[in-house]
Write a structure and sequence with these properties.
The protein folds into 2 domains: 90 residues, Phosphorylase Kinase, domain 1 (2-Layer Sandwich), CATH 3.30.200.20; 66 residues, ATP-grasp fold, B domain (D-amino Acid Aminotransferase, Chain A, domain 1), CATH 3.30.470.20. The strands form 5 sheets. It has a 4-stranded antiparallel sheet with strand order 1-2-3-6. A hairpin with a 4-residue loop joins strand 2 and strand 3. The termini are far apart. It is of the alpha+beta class.
Length: 175
């Protein structure tokens, strides 16, 4: 399987190239999201992609969006990729990494579920004994397994900026 580090599609305007996703304008109502195989860790894009990662992320996201669409509307459409990316070689390059979605106002939040105390959660814990306002047991060590998985949302910062941990109520307020 060939890795796709960056998409370059003719005939579509590139709107944004994020840490993992490339977003193209289709028209005033829709856009094409390509989930690449780029790897981002701690807000840094690493030089080595993971082949197939974008396809897996797209399939998992699509599954959950479809599964939850009766509970909360989402951005998915039923527009086939071949109607937007007409070049056979470009379409083959994308594989199952691309979806056509409605243009909506994004919620600037990253939903993170943690099972271990590491990264920005570890930094918060060291300062406050909490992560995103959630009290944790005392004396945890770096990378310790948590008693149960916790939801620890963060802001969705612009490229080059760092996400910041926020509490659950912040997510509720956005919704």
């Amino acid at each position: 399987m060939t890795a796709l580090y960056q998409s370059d599609l003719s005939g579509l305007e590139l709107l944004n190239r994020g840490k993992v996703r490339d977003i193209y304008a289709v028209d005033d109502e829709t856009m094409l999201i390509v989930t690449t195989d780029r790897l981002s860790a701690f807000d840094v894009i690493l030089p080595q992609p993971i082949p197939g990662k974008g396809e897996v992320l797209t399939r998992v996201s699509s599954f959950w969006f479809r599964r939850m669409e009766k509970l909360i509307p989402n951005h998915l459409t039923d527009i086939p990729l071949e109607s937007v990316v007409t070049n056979d070689d470009e379409r083959a390059q994308l594989g199952d990494r691309a979806i056509i979605v409605r243009r909506l106002e994004p919620l600037p939040v990253e939903a993170i579920v943690r099972g271990y105390i590491i990264g920005s959660g570890w930094k918060d814990y060291q300062k406050t004994g909490q992560v995103c306002g959630i009290d944790l047991p005392a004396n945890l060590q770096l990378a310790d397994k948590l008693p149960e998985a916790i939801y620890t949302p963060s802001t969705k910062a612009a490229m080059g900026a760092h996400d910041e941990n926020v509490d659950f109520q912040h997510t509720v307020n956005l919704l």
